[in-house]
Structures are given as C-alpha cells and as structure tokens.
Amino acid sequence: METESEPYVRLATLRQVHQAVAELNSARSLADTLQTVAEGVVNGLGYELAAVNLVRPDGDLVVAAVAGDASAEAFLSGRVGSRVSWERRLSMGERWGELRFIPYTEGWVLDEDDVPQWRTAGPAPAFADEWHPMDRLLAPMYTAGSATGELLGVISVDRPRNGRRPGAWGREALQMYAFQAAIAISNARLRANMQRALVRLEREQQALRASEESFRQAFEYAPSGMAIAELGGEQHGRLHKANDALCRLLGRPAAQMRRYSFADLVHPDDVGLLLRTSAEGGRAELRLRRRDDSYIWVSLRNSVVADAADGPRFLLTHVEDIEDRKRHELQLAHRASHDALTGLPNSAELRARLSSRLCSRPPDGDGRAEAVPGPFGRLDGFAEVVGVGSPFGGPFGEPVLLGAEGAYAADRAHTLVDDHPAGTDGGFGHHTDHHVHTVALDEDSDDGSKGLAVLFCDLDGFKSINDRFGHHTGDAVLIEVARRLTSGVRDGDTVARLGGDEFVVLADGLGLADAEDLAARLRNAIIPPIRVDGRAVRVGASFGIGWAGCGMSADEVLRSADQRMYVEKRSRARAGRRAG
C-alpha cells in the first residue's frame, strides 16, 4: 500500500479486500477456499507471500495453502507445526488487535522450533518502520471471529510490497480479512461435512435397500418356515407376514395366516412354552395346528428385533418341521420301554411305573397321607395315555403316550415322588407331603380297603410247546397271550412282559376279592386253544397276587408276587396229582 493518508489509496485497497472476500465465498471445496484465502492476501492486501496454517483434528497446524512464491509453496506445503510452538508464537511480540507482530529483534528465538517457515537474512532496517526479512506477522482465525472462539488456523504473511510494516489501515484490513476468511473456511468445512454426510447417508440407504432386498428374498424363498410377528401391545403375537414355506407347512394361505397369532395355532398344552419363548426369545419344540386340525411338531426359534430408539419392535420367528425327528424319537423311546415281540411295556418300564407309586417312607397313622396336589399335578393311577397334571406328563405339561415315552414319563414321576425327602416338596419351599401313599393290603383281613394289586403271571406248558413246535409257534403264543391279557384288564391298568413266559399286571383300586376275580378271569382267558399255522395249542397260567406299598421297592413287590405265584403253581400241581 502507498501513503495511507490519501483517501483514494484507501478506497482502492478496500475494493481489493472486497474483491478478495467475494472470491472466498465463491470457492467450492475446502481446499479451494484455503488456496483462495492465501491468494487473497497476495492479490488484495499487498503482500508478496502468504501461507494458511490450518488446525488439524489432533491440534497441530499444517500448511494447507501457500501463495506468492512457487519455491516457498513447494517447501512449505503439507508441513506440520506443533500446537505448542504455535501457541508460543501467538503469545509473543506486539499485539495489533487480533494480529501478532514478532519483530526480527525478538523472532530469532523461533528459528529452531518446528513451525515451517520461509525466511531470508537481510540488513538492518534503514528507517523505523522498514520491513525486515526476519519480521513475522500472524493473523489468527477463530470460529467465533475473536480470540474467545476456538482457533481455526493462522494466516502468516511476509514481504509487504511497499517494504514497510503495515500501518493502522493495513492492520485493520488484514484483521478484517482474517475474520472473513475464518467464516469462509468454517462454511467450507460445513459444506464438506454435509457432503460427506449426504454421501454416507446415500451409501447407508443403498446398503439398507440392499439389505432389505436380501432379507426379503431370504424370507420369501427360505426352505423352512419364517414369520414376522408383533411384539407387545394389543396385537402381541399377531402375524404380520408368513413366507411360502410356513404357509405350505400349515396348509394355510398367506392372507389367512395374517388373521392368526402363534397362540391361536399352538397346541393347548404348549401355550405356556410358547409365551415364555415369545417373551424371552430363544427356541422351543412344540406343536402347531394345520388347516385340517391335525398337529405337526416344529422347532420354533424367536429373535427379538429391536429399534435403538423405541425398544423391541417385532419377533422374527423361524419354524422348522421336526415331525420326522419327533416320530423317530417316539419310536426309539417306545423300543427302549416296550417289548419288541408283544408291544407290551418291558421290565424296565414296569419297574419305572411301579416305582412312581412308591416312596421309601412307609405311610403313617391310617396308612394314607393327605392328598395335596403338588406342583406337577396328581400322582394317582396308570394309563397308557395320560394328560396334563398326570405323573407321566411331559416337562411342560403336554400329554405323553406312555407306550412311546413311558420310561421318560415314569422316571419324571419317580423323581417327583422318591427324590424328595419326606415332609418336603423337593425345593419348592412348602413343607407338605404331596405324595399320596400306596398301602399294601392285609390279606388276613378283608376290610374292604382298596390297593395296588400286582399280578405275576407264569405260563404253564409253554416250554413244551416251544421245544416241540419251535420258536415261531412259541412267539405266536406269547403274542396271543399278551392280547388276551390286555383285553381282560381296564384301560387304566398296565400289562407288562418281564421276559420269557412271565407277565405282570398292575391294577390299582382293587380289593382282595377283586384281585382274585381278576386273576381268575385272566386265567380263563388264557386257557382256550390258540391256533398257530392251523394247529391248536393250549397253555395254562399261574397267578401270584402281591400288594404294593410305600416302604417297599419295586423289586420287593415283584419278588413277593413271584413267590405267591410259585406257591399257587405248586398247590395246583399237588391238587392235580391228588385228582389223578
């Protein structure tokens, strides 16, 4: 700038500053804005060299733009000065408003710090305000336009074209320019951040659309059933959507599925299990009702899909057909607990059922404790098919076919009875005896009491048939005897095969005379000839009647009935010899 007292010079300078500021606002990117800031100092404010030092995220300052000297630009661009060194500089020298002027007489202490600089030596000034090559003039830029804001960067200028240190007007112009430059840089950063955010948002939306499409395809074309259900509120469990595989599995169209919840379709005995699974997420095996009202076993897995703002929103349910596996499990359970030849419960199943009625503590007083329902239902009676509350119910109260899962059911019931010390309920916190004691009847006095009769049956003459006609005929005889025994007992009674030609009948609620009558009926049912391959063969049967009671083991009960059977067999043999 020339003589500052001349108004037309000031006006020309003001126009140059205005033009430089206008160019700041026309820059598009942050890099363009920084370079425009440096060039505006050279073109509009009359300095031969200018550098823009920008604060990085780590706090240090990097030379982001240089204008006025190609060699200086090549040397300085991209170099970094520490924040500590820059703060030292901004605290030194003379304060010209927001500017910092460090004369060459003080600046020599900065020659060895890490701030990038372009300096040349020169002679001492010839007059008071002559610019020295080692002088430094810094224009800080703040986000709030003043030192109260956050430091955004520093404009460093050198070599005024008039060779003089700037006067009041030149200082005011540089300070005003630095203020406008800070605004332009902040705006450029804001635009850059917005552009990056928009790009990121677009990418996220594209990824979301791709993810939604992938999910849709995976949902629709999954080989196993999938459903989306409401979580919480009045419509809890209502199906929003079901894929084709689930519709085929249940035999229902998609439009019809949307009218249901899984609670509408689940087997009544599995509702509790479903509700626990729906509330907590996880996996359960249960039965769902098909359109023809039949039930199919499925493995149901729930995933709670949550919204970061509003919490859980819906359940994603995966439904897998496990009907074949369940059928196979039932077959295996049946084989483990039933005789392969006759289909009757085997020895292990018989002992399990019998043990479920017995405990190690003999009954007190009148022989029967108070019948208080336990947490798993009543413990009275035997049945091939039992329902909820039965001792042979499954772990979630579902009906269990004893013929298929008898060992498991009886073991469960046995646990409820025998594994709990007398006077407790096995850890449920109530000191009451939930077990209904079984009392062995006194055979010497028939007072009309009822008990659990154990009829031990041994076939007479079977060995000779087996030896004479072969195992094929012997097996046919055993099958027919099993059929006749089963036909001669009540639905709630148990007929089991111990092995060989020995059978056992468990019949609850019988008196002494009732048991004798039952043994006689069964013996008479066995006596008629049995036809095998056109040949008629005949077997007899000896029965021993024992009575089960708490304080006895299953083996003790069976041994007692076995002994009575041999007594009865010998007495019948002696009677036959006397008659002959």
**CATH superfamily annotation of the largest domain:** GAF domain
Q: Give the uncertain stretches in residue-range form.
A: 1-6, 367-433
Number of strands: 20
Counted by DSSP, the helix tally is 17
Distance between the termini: 154 Å
Please identify, by name, the CATH architecture of the largest domain.
2-Layer Sandwich
**Reading side by side through the largest sheet, how are the strands ordered?**
3-2-1-7-6-5-4
Classify the beta-strand content into a percent band: 15-25%
CATH class of the largest domain: Alpha Beta
Domain tally: 3
Mean pLDDT score: 80
Specify Rg, calculated over alpha carbons.
50 Å
CATH topology of the largest domain: Beta-Lactamase
Summarize the main sheet. 7 strands, antiparallel
The helix content is 40-55%
Keywords: Coiled coil
Domain PAS: 211-270
Coiled coil: 187-214
Domain PAC: 282-334
